[in-house]
User: Fold this.
Amino acid sequence: MFDEIRFNTIDRLPGYVFAQINDLKLSARRAGDDIIDFSMGNPDGKTPQHIIDKLVESAQKDGTHGYSVSKGIYKLRLAICNWYLRKYGVTLDPNTEAVATLGSKEGFVHLAQAITNPGDVVVVPDPAYPIHAYAFMIAGGNVHKFGLDYNEKYELDKEQFFLKLKKVFRESAPKPKYVVVNFPHNPTCVTTDVSFYEELVAYAKEERFYIISDIAYADLSFDGYETPSIFQVEGAKDVAVEFYTLSKSYNMAGWRVGFVVGNKKLVGALQKIKSWFDYGMFTPIQVASTIALDGPQECVDEIREKYRKRRDVLVESFNNAGWPMEKPRSTMFVWAKIPPVAQHLGSMEFSKQLLTEAKIAVSPGNGFGEAGEGYVRIALIENENRIRQAARNIKRYLKSLEDSKK
Ligand SMILES: Cc1ncc(COP(=O)(O)O)c(C=O)c1O
Assistant:
């Protein structure tokens, strides 16, 4: 009925990449297959006990059950600012430069709603975490993409980045208003350093655009690498905001807690639009999140170490199984080129065959954008035994591909 009634926003949205993979996975499981699941960036661990205890304690109290504060209770915003001070030596004002969000995804979507005029141009490197582009498309913006260049150690090629960014600025009318950056990067695991942000902030001031940085994987860095923040650059607050999430560092993905800090104009816009859209997280969740950020941080070290071990087991055992790949120095993923014997299949067909032939779920790289074709993203959310089992399955599958070519 009412076929003539269309929803333009919905029509412009493709099926969510993870939903497509999930459908395939579900039908395989229904058919009785034990699928080893590396597809979503959904942490498999439990939230640290002291954070759960604080949630329970707060939920037992009177006065914590009503509507909360949409921009986050003051104590949480203060904890957010203290986290930045401790980790990066950056001073922020909890009233005007910080806002708590219902996970960083919600914050990202609503920030885009708040700051996008129809036709605004936004630059998002390709491939990308899908919402980095689609939040702006949903809000009526035009997204310009360019391929992210990096070396085999997953380090950003800064020179190419700025060459391509400057080309977009030369050729785009109107000029881009926002540039989205996300290092350590999902899905490619690419990392960068403070000098990159220095150049980006200087360029933003020259060309008059805002930078939206996402450091969701800030704490999941290994081998001595430390994730930089854009705010380590003097004056970055004039042109930038930065997102962080408790989902990964504290195994709190289901709790939906993230935050945005930085530029007052952008933070203020998000605070204002959120006051129309929501009443904030359940107060006990906010109280427990305050403890997560302010309390003992050994749990973060343990979570980081768990991912590092899995990364090592995965890369080493998959290499031995005949699938060459390098160890990334950050994130909870491995971004792997399709092995030579399967390259003709492309990302989607290879992912499908991994599911049906090796009982392994991964995310096809092209789901993150055209530049992801030829790759798959492997999330480190299965334990070491399951990873070793996956390597055995892959060895068998790759051998069968080789045999079929003979
Ligand atoms: C780069 C990046 N940003 C943001 C998010 C969303 O995190 P949250 O759980 O805070 O919404 C993710 C989730 O995978 C991510 O990879």
Notes: Residues 298-320 form the longest helix (23 residues).
